[in-house]
Write a structure and sequence with these properties.
about 375 residues, homodimer, 2 domains, 16 helices, alpha/beta, TIM Barrel, about 45% helix, three-stranded antiparallel sheet
């Protein structure tokens, strides 16, 4: 199959796989798709190691890297002297500590034994939290991009806000195209004006940070608005029929994230994986309660408490909510894996409405082949029906 | 183009047009599609007249009728002796009266001059309201179906709950298939068990009563769950590319509603039509504030006041919210047409996210032809890209 995307990325089949797990990235790339590693969870040094591992696995086959660049973050994140942990209000720390007690989870190791739900700034955990929070600023993301560009990446993708001019310049100098994720036509226009070479139009049904407009409605409008810039469709795509639908809408390829979470290669904790396998398409919610920006995820006691409990203080802006939530949710998963029922109720993860289709654990390679083969069938059926 | 749907309905192209306006139904049917008249707004006698008019226009070409059958309604609606207007609490009447004052709309004619926002039961308006409210019960809907079956209709469609056995029996005896609208896989299975011959899988992006799952995600799951029952895709379909996408997902045709609202034939009041033409895909909301059940509609001061104002008493169950809202919103439209700015802010209508694509007024026939021609192009592009 040939589209401008397959030419640009040097691939056989325009199936892009977003994952935080290097094994998934390598497996999809080696199966003829295009893996993109979500880099936001990594320090620059760690990212360098992950990409070196991928380089060894894929031996020249193309892959990419994704960074998170919100248009707006909490002011503390922009101030290199600020201690981000200290910007988290007491009410929020207390609420998380209350949840940990209520659901019998125990306290994350990085919290001070006598105090609230945070990592004290003078500890290693506090410094790591500061650094993690700053990775969603332009300066932090550039650190990751610089590492990526030392590797043979074929795409830099930027989620949330427009890529800063510096990022576009450095990627261009390295001959690497820049992709930008968007949820509205206006954002698509803004991203192209900022220099995006590829637009990923992502519908509300997608997992993770996402807008309100469905893929079916969004993709054709974005295709028309940014032509001739090529568009990848994201959100609701986890099968060959859905991929054929996305291409019918005018996209030149697809960007899938959720479907890899239940592959053999994914590092999804078993307790979360089992919840994903059991969930229906009604079991997700778009909530600010993990990162501070609306992100679709599995409904759980965590989303219910933050979004509905009367004592909830409401989510903090990005990146503070991430800094508050992630250590707590990591502890939740550990407690759930150890058999804690309350912890199991709290555990969740970013996933799209396609979770209702994810009913078995398969190698990522098999998922790629299944999508290719169902895609071919869907196109053949469409041609046949249309005489 | 041939699918089981085109065979079943006796049409050339599996494009079903839902409209409350007989002119749209006739125009689409005469252009080779299949018009379906939404009957819930009509008394049986009025429906009979509308269908006779359609019969004259379409001269044997096929069309259908749609009724609304919620699984659950307010208890008063099931009691033939109850006065529905009296079941509306004072707080709700007062809130609507407050909105009418706040936005300078004036009082609907059917409200008592000295009292709250309702039609007194002893007046003709009160009796008409009682009857309108009962049209969404099984008995009320059967009255409409009986009228429809005296005409050469080729489809009875039922929205919200499963069609009652009586309806399926009478339609079957008349040789007329029954279609049922669904928003989840579970509902689809229930509707087929209740005797539906066709399932309309409707995504959250659709206008009017709608669920939470997007078309992209819902349609393939419903197709697999009810096979070999044919599925129409609804929600997010207003162009040929979107129709091709829907067929790629496994549907055998599409059901479109919103796109007809800005056709020349539609009776959409000009003030509402202009708001639809100006709206983007971000300007809709799924709210209970017009009917008591979640229905996607244009955001307006009406939806904001009901859903966000601290003094809002929250929506009533169906059909009480309809009985309260519809006379008020009819008055709002009259005031808006007369130039009232507050009324213009309140005015809205049921519409899907495709409203962002609806940017010009065209004859319904031209919309059908544009969809057919873009559909053919989209399928050709898909075949070409796939080699």
């Amino acid at each position: 199959m040939r589209t401008r995307l397959t030419e640009l990325l040097g691939i056989e089949f325009p199936l892009v796989a977003f994952s935080h797990c290097r094994d998934v990235v390598a497996a999809v790339t080696n199966a003829g798709g295009f893996g993109v590693l979500g880099a936001v969870a990594y320090s620059p040094a760690r990212l360098d190691r992950e990409l070196s591992w991928i380089d060894e696995q894929v031996r020249g086959r193309p892959y990419g890297v994704d960074v998170l660049l919100p248009g707006r973050v909490d002011a503390a994140a922009a101030d290199p002297a600020a201690r981000l942990g200290e910007a988290i209000p007491d009410a929020h720390r207390d609420f998380v500590a209350h949840l940990m007690r209520k659901y019998d989870v125990g306290r994350p190791d990085i919290w001070p034994p006598d105090g609230g739900a945070w990592a004290p700034p003078t500890t290693a955990a506090g410094r790591a939290a500061d650094e993690a929070g700053r990775r969603v600023t332009a300066a932090g993301a550039m650190g990751l991009v610089d590492v990526a560009l030392k590797h043979p990446v074929r795409l830099i993708a930027s989620a949330l806000g427009p890529p800063p001019p510096e990022m576009v310049d450095r990627a261009r100098s390295a001959g690497v195209p820049v992709a930008a994720l968007v949820g509205t036509v206006e954002h698509a226009r803004r991203q192209v004006a900022a220099g995006a070479d590829v637009v990923v139009a992502q519908g509300t049904e997608a997992g993770g940070h996402t807008g309100e407009i469905s893929t079916m409605v969004l993709v054709p409008q974005v295709v028309d608005a940014v032509a001739p810039v090529p568009v990848l469709a994201a959100g609701g795509v986890a099968s060959g029929r859905q991929m054929a639908a996305a291409i019918a809408l005018g996209a030149e390829g697809v960007w899938c994230g959720s479907v890899w979470l239940t592959t053999e290669e994914a590092e999804t904790p078993p307790v979360v994986r089992d919840k994903l396998l059991a969930a229906t398409s009604l079991d997700t919610v778009r909530s600010r309660c993990r990162t501070g920006k609306p992100a679709r995820q599995l409904k759980s006691a965590w989303t219910e408490e933050w979004d509905e409990a009367t004592e909830s203080p409401g989510p903090l802006p990005m990146p503070l909510q991430m800094l508050l939530a992630e250590p707590a949710l990591a502890r939740v998963v550990r407690a759930a894996e150890a058999g804690g029922e309350g912890a199991r109720d709290l555990a969740n993860y970013f996933v799209g409405q396609v979770v209702g289709q994810m009913n078995q654990v398969r190698p990522a390679r098999e998922v790629v082949y299944a999508i290719v083969s169902e895609y071919v069938e869907a196109v053949a059926r469409l041609s046949r029906l249309s005489g």
